[in-house]
Amino acid sequence: MRSRVALRDEAEHTLAVMIYYTGIDYHKRYSVACTLDAQGHKIREARIDANAPAAFAAYFKALDKPSKVTMEACWNWGVLHDLLETLDNVVEVILSNPAKNRIIAFVDAQKRPLRRILPGDSLAR
Question: How do residues 72-111 score in pLDDT, each as one tens digit?
Fold first, then answer.
């Protein structure tokens, strides 16, 4: 018989495989969305001009799995946050603190060396 911890870990792993992870770089005139699977493979990437709500809806509707979304808490973030929470294929919206993003990048760089990513390179390691 498996322990509760083992069952919980298995359930979390199953959930992780069943969803995607999307990062949004939100600007005044456009945004860039990039979606990865649990293994870090790029599923989709798109520039969303004019931050059009219909374009965000179409981006997430085109995904075949629900997605967790991360975005920086920057200018006017509340508008996009509220929009994303209404979309069917978005299961969670997570705000990152822009001041702490540098710390995350620094710690990640300590764990593995930075490498140049060329067009066509896989982001998975």
Answer: 888 788 999 999 999 999 999 999 887 776 665 555 555 5
Instruction: Compute the distance between CA of residue 112 and CA of residue 31 in angstroms, rounded to an integer.
Output: 28
Taking a C-beta distance cutoff of 8 angstroms, is the pair 26, 49 a contact? no
**Sign of dihedral through CA atoms 4, 65, 56, 70?**
positive
Provide the CATH topology of domain 19-111.
Nucleotidyltransferase; domain 5 (3.30.420)
Annotated domain spans of the chain? 19-111
Please report, as a single letter, which amino acid is at residue 53.
Answer: P
Residue ranges of the alpha helices (H) in 1-125? 4-17, 53-61, 77-86, 98-111
Count other Cβ atoms within 10 Å, centred on residue 74. Answer: 14
DSSP code for 122: -
C-alpha to C-alpha distance for 94 and 23, rounded to whole angstroms:
10
Could you read off the pLDDT of 34-63 as tens digits, one per residue?
Answer: 999 988 899 999 999 999 999 999 999 999
Under 8 Å between Cβ of 44 and 62: yes
The average pLDDT across 66-73 equals 92
pTM, whole model, 2 decimals? 0.71
